Amino acid sequence: MSASIELTDLPFGLLVDERGELRPATSKVERRLSQMAGMYADAEAERAAIADGDPLVYEVHQYDMPQHPGELVVCTTILHAGKVGEEFFMTKGHYHEVRDRGEVYYGLRGEGVLVLARNDAAETVPIGPGVVAYVPPHWAHRTVNTGSEPFVFLAVYPGDAGHDYGTIETEGFPQSVVARDGAVLVTRREQA
Ligand code: PAN
Ligand code: ZN
């Protein structure tokens, strides 16, 4: 970590609403299904959905910060409603590159589940409006929209945390969240 990184030393406010608009935002990311190919268990349904319009799965609106452990990044995620086969739309999921960095999520709209994994352990935390969910250091994390409207949440994490997507792309999560017989079910993931 370079000592010359410029820190944000003046307070400020950001405006956030239940649609996930963050004002101002300094970056926005859109993830379509084709950008997370191979992550859903039903490969055939995944291929068909990509061929049939390649749906927008989620968006992240962020206020970027210097990559310093004392800074806090603020962002919103808008995770759209939908399924690939029986599996609900979800984020790619990641470990923080600096593994001992935690994170806080705050539910703004809709219904979802935070899925976490660490070594052989797996946990889920339901999130709805008003719920604060804690991602401890060292846990991989992803969110899943289990409802029929956008699932929107705010996240706050250290400026130097970074995102390691590669480990999840290789190893996957031990659990997936599916709709079965009209119910939301957390299952042991079947590898694609
Ligand atoms: C979140 C996530 C966001 C998108 O802000 O980055 O929900 O998920 P992926 O990064 O897995 O695509 C967060 O956990 N940041 O650290
Ligand atoms: Zn994170």
List keywords for this structure.
mainly beta; 192 residues; binds zinc ion; 8% helix; three-stranded antiparallel beta sheet; six-stranded antiparallel beta sheet; Jelly Rolls; binds 5-phospho-D-arabinohydroxamic acid
Count of β-strands: 17
**CATH topology call:** Jelly Rolls
Overall structural domain count:
1
The CATH top-level class label: Mainly Beta
What percent strand?
Answer: 35-45%
**Whole-number mean pLDDT:** 95
Element-by-element helix/strand order: EEEHEEEEEEEEEEEEHEE
- What is the name of the CATH architecture? Sandwich
Q: Characterize the main sheet.
A: 6 strands, antiparallel
- The value of Rg in angstroms is 17 Å
- First and last CA, distance: 39 Å
Overall shape? globular
- What oligomeric state do these chains adopt? single chain
Uncertain spans: none
Helix content: under 10%
Ligands bound to this protein structure: 5-phospho-D-arabinohydroxamic acid, zinc ion
Could you name the CATH homologous superfamily? Answer: Jelly Rolls
Please give the order of strands in the largest beta sheet: 3-4-5-14-9-12
Helical run tally: 2
How would you describe what is shown here?
The chain is mainly beta. It has a single domain, classed as Jelly Rolls (Sandwich), CATH 2.60.120.10. Helices cover 8% and strands 44% of the residues. It is built from two helices and 17 strands. The chain has helices spanning 43-51, 166-171; strands at 15-16, 22-23, 27-32, 56-63, 72-79, 83-84, 87-88, 95-96, 103-109, 112-118, 121-127, 132-135, 140-145, 151-158, 163-164, 175-180, 183-188. The strands form six sheets. A six-stranded antiparallel sheet has the order 3-4-5-14-9-12, with no helix packed on it. Strand 16 and strand 17 form a beta hairpin. It starts with 14 loop residues before the first strand and ends with a strand. The model has no long low-confidence stretch (mean pLDDT 95). The protein binds 5-phospho-D-arabinohydroxamic acid (PAN) and zinc ion.
